[in-house]
Amino acid sequence: MSTEAPHKREVDINLSPEQFRAIGHRLVDQIAGLFAHLGDRPVTTGETAEQIRALLHADRSLPETGGDPEELMAMTTSLLFNHSLYNGHPRFWGYITAPAAPIGVLAELLASAVNPNCGAWPLSPVASEIEAQTIRWIAELIGYPTTCGGILVSGGNMANFIGFIAARAAKADGDLRKSGVAVGTNGRLRAYCSAETHTWIQKAADMTGLGTDSIRWIPVDHDLKMNMSALRAQIDADLKAGDKPFLVVGTAGSVSTGAIDRLGEVADVCREYGLWFHADGAYGGFAACVPEVSKDLRALSAADSVAVDPHKWLYAPLEAGCALVRDPEALRAAFSYRPRYYHFGDEGQSFVDYGPQNSRGFRALKVWMMLQQAGRAGYERMIRDDIHLARHCYDLLAKHHQFEVFTHELSIATFRFVPSDLRPRLGEGEVESYLNKLNEDLLVEIEKGGELFLSPAVVREHSLLRMCVVNFRTTRTDVEALPSLVAWIGEKVDKRLRPVGM
Q: Which of 35, 39, 364, 448 could cysteine-pair with 134, CB 3.0–4.6 Å?
């Protein structure tokens, strides 16, 4: 068999400049049309997994031979445009997923065209410097020290993992990275967080070898913020038992209700006991740029590490999370290894030393461009608008005879549908159980219907509907349509579900 390289490859995945232009121009035109008419489409088609698999012919084998790229792009565009859930729709208010800003979409195309590997500076010189500048700008936007270290990651879970791992390396006794979690510690390492903290902390404790039993879940007060007396009591009890407290997580915008812990008091406790203060601001951290929102968010500046998600309240395309750490050396101490097969100099920052990835995509470009397009004032205005829209929705629901409101914090409002004739019986066990079931079924109908999209919340054992506005396309008109739409669907579900005689 000849080992001579072919002069021309038989299979060529490349496109000619003319083909690339034709396919690319057509796709950009189609995307522009999609953005222009998103509000005219359903939020989702409500199709089942079986229906989607049928569209894909999911059981087929890998094609033996290749296909025409123009036909492939046309088929794929139609598939995605006609069978997706659109988180860019102005009435998508589920979970905390933002629409992708158009300049961010274009930035993704540009980044993938150059395709730098942002693990090492020599492989991505300008991209690495853009990421470093982006991190400084993010820190500046939320009032965090711009001398911090940081890294762009996939999202909130990973950004929080970065802070958790940095805390573990900084606060554990001995060389934990070398010896492992079972050696060189005085008692068990303990992490503290409120009962409302996102499940990322369970994954972090699991993946780092501490185990989920190392987490101390601190109860919350009536306002769903961490009870500080209970936190102190638990730390004291663990110290007395010979354990090693190392980390307290303060939540800056809980996923269910947007609750913000008393971050200044959390900082005080951490200083008093010598613990690492990590702030989970994946959702609410960027609201710190709005001066009137919450004085607790000003205490982000006191945290040892902060997680924020540009693909939430900066409206960046997925994926884009960001971890900030006050002392850059704490990141290197947690992640850096320099084997002989690396040949990276010190001419610039290599992000391989700041996180778990070696090969890294150019996540920073879209965020860097968006920050410059909108500026601080633009983001302050957009985030404020989202908060005001959620408050407006809450106020409308509070006045409506078929709803009971529960919470409003940041841009999240929680509520439930209550049929008018059951309102006088609120608090009765039978009625409360039925209302939980009714609102759970109602949410399923809403999510399948395509007219709007909400998500669930559970507050004090009540199953609730939850709307979260992190959407620059949402208008006051959209929000004002929510009560009547949900009531109309709720009445239908109630008629079908209500037990005879209730």
A: 364
**Do 148 and 44 belong to one domain?**
no
Give the H or E element holding residue 328: helix 328-335
This prediction has a pTM of 0.94
Rounded CA separation 85/101 (Å):
17
In the chain, what's the furthest Cα-to-Cα distance?
Answer: 87
346 and 384 share one domain: no
Q: What is the pLDDT of residue 340?
A: 66
Dist. CA 421–CA 41, nearest whole Å: 35
**CA dihedral for 118, 121, 127, 131, sign (positive or negative):** positive
Domain, as residue range, for 287: 116-361
pLDDT at 181: 78
Q: Is residue 3 part of a domain?
A: no
User: For residue 278, what are its two tokens?
Assistant: 């990590």
Is 471 part of any domain? yes
Q: What distance in Å separates the CA atoms of residue 118 and residue 177, rounded to the nearest whole number?
A: 24
Domain end among 310, 326, 361: 361
- Asked if 301 and 141 count as a contact pair (C-beta separation under 8 A), the reply is no
Q: What integer pLDDT is reported at residue 500 of this predicted model?
A: 86
Single-letter residue type at 207: M
pLDDT of residue 344: 66
| Torsion on CA atoms 372, 378, 384, 388, rounded to nearest 10 | -130
| Average pLDDT, consecutive stretches of 10 residues, N- to C-terminus, the chain (502 residues) | 65 89 97 96 94 95 93 97 96 95 98 96 95 98 97 97 97 84 71 96 96 97 97 98 96 96 98 98 97 93 98 97 97 86 72 94 98 98 98 98 97 98 94 98 95 96 97 97 98 94 82
Domain containing residue 479: CATH number: 3.90.1150.170
Looking up tokens 């979690």, which residue turns up? 181
Residues 6 or more apart from 388 whose CB is under 8 A from it? none
| Whether 222 and 301 share a structural domain | yes
Count structural domains, the chain.
Answer: 3
Based on the domain organization, do 78 and 127 belong to the same domain? Answer: no
At 368 the pLDDT is 98
| CA 365/CA 130 separation, integer angstroms | 7
pLDDT score for 291: 93
**Does residue 106 form part of some domain?**
no
Distance of CA 338 to CAs 188, 344, 353, 421, Å? 30, 9, 8, 69
CB 43 within 8 A of CB 448: no
Residue 184: what pLDDT?
A: 44
Distance from the Cα of residue 127 to its chain's centroid: 23
